[in-house]
Design goal:
With 171 residues, the chain is mostly beta strands. 2% of the residues lie in helices and 40% in strands.
Length: 171
């Protein structure tokens, strides 16, 4: 079982099954990068991995890190603010969509430049009321997304439990 933590002072994720594969190649190497994130998405066109570095106190916090797995390196880091939470890449590699923990909106970035292309408001409520818990891009439809809303007061942290924040419930 594998559990993940965003570092000191954060909770571990729920456990997920983890399998170690047999050696695939004599030259196979595993690298660890100094990067902690909430979500990641793969660019199928460029072979890059985008990581939502949510924690503002972490190195490169409030940003999206672009990782080149072939070079085992962080290629660049783009500051976004608002604690990026969820990511989705279109299958044609044209767009990266990001939801944020402290912004009730999804932002679309044009790839490969990572230039802000569009901001999509999600609700009339404020950022403390809702955010994009998940962002997925429709296959073959780079401008069509699905967004699952999250709420800091009642937020499914993992598959095993629901966490209630008593300060939002008046308890």
């Amino acid at each position: 079982t594998l559990q993940v933590s965003n570092g000191p002072g954060t909770e571990n994720s729920g456990g997920v099954p983890f399998t170690v594969l047999p050696i695939l190649d004599a030259n196979l190497q595993i690298s660890a990068l100094p990067l902690s994130g909430q979500d990641m998405a793969v660019d199928p066109v460029r072979g890059l991995i985008y990581v939502a570095v949510t924690n503002p106190a972490a190195p490169n916090g409030n940003s999206i890190a672009i990782v080149d797995p072939a070079a085992s390196a962080i290629q660049s880091v783009v500051f976004t603010g608002n604690q990026p939470w969820s990511l989705g890449v279109s299958d044609d590699g044209q767009y990266l969509y990001s939801g944020f923990e402290t912004l009730a909106a999804v932002k679309r970035f044009k790839l490969p430049a990572m230039s802000l292309d569009l901001t999509i408001p999600l609700s009339a409520g404020g950022p403390s009321e809702s955010y994009a818990g998940e962002v997925k891009v429709a296959p073959g439809q780079s401008q069509t997304i699905a967004v699952a809303m999250g709420n800091p007061a009642i937020e499914p942290r993992d598959r095993k439990s629901t966490r209630l924040n008593s300060s939002h419930l008046g308890i």
